[in-house]
């Protein structure tokens, strides 16, 4: 069985819309046991996008009832009013620092604690910039060892390896992680702290002339050879409880 912890539904840039039907068909074709899905991060119009996400969630859960597990991407300002968003209907919360302005360490720590109080993991997008590098997020997690934090994309990779070696409650997902980098995580003994995730079907935006399904199959097959069962499905089953 394979579980994928990083799937998107909804609107993306350039007029793209990732529909529940597209995701359900992908899950069937690839024999995906379970997958965690959430919105794509865009800066504006959160409230209307959220209403639409709830509709997509309901549709996807009825198309793929055993496999589809929703997570909730929230803007940082919404963490203060978390109850409004019915967080217990979701298996994880997600924060995307790249689309937030003036996101202080204190605010990130608040988001981690909010997820911990709900007994669910917080997924945090990481990138190569200092503002949302895994070094910054990893440091904040040292003060907030309450629950699991998942560094989406695990960037920058070498620093992420060290963080995973030194902290029990931090994981990283493999969305857009080059397989050569995943091999380095494996060589460093921390592949068991990775969670397989793909960012499907965002390839439709970044590689418009290629077949996103075929790209997915190639990526998944390569990762399956590198990563242990912990990364391919066990961590997923341990961390994300279906609601
Ligand atoms: Zn993503």
Structure overview:
This protein has 243 residues and is α/β, with parallel strands linked by helices. The protein has one domain: Metal-dependent hydrolases (TIM Barrel, Alpha-Beta Barrel). Helix content is 41%, strand content 17%. A six-stranded parallel β-sheet has the order 5-6-7-8-9-10. It is globular, with a radius of gyration of 16 Å. The model has no long low-confidence stretch (mean pLDDT 94). Bound molecules: zinc ion. The site of zinc ion has 4 residues, from strand 1.
What spatial order of strands do you see in the largest sheet?
5-6-7-8-9-10
Report the sheet with the most strands, covering strand number, pairing sense and barrel closure.
Answer: 6 strands, parallel
Task: List the secondary-structure elements in sequence, H or E.
Answer: EEHEHEEEHEHEHEHEHHH
Overall CATH architecture: Alpha-Beta Barrel
CATH class identity: Alpha Beta
Supply Rg.
Answer: 16 Å
* Structural class designation: alpha/beta
CATH superfamily: Metal-dependent hydrolases
Number of domains: 1
Q: Shape, please?
A: globular
CATH domain topology: TIM Barrel
Bound molecules: zinc ion
Helix content: 40-55%
Overall strand count? 10
- The number of helical segments is 9
Q: Give the termini distance in whole angstroms.
A: 20 Å
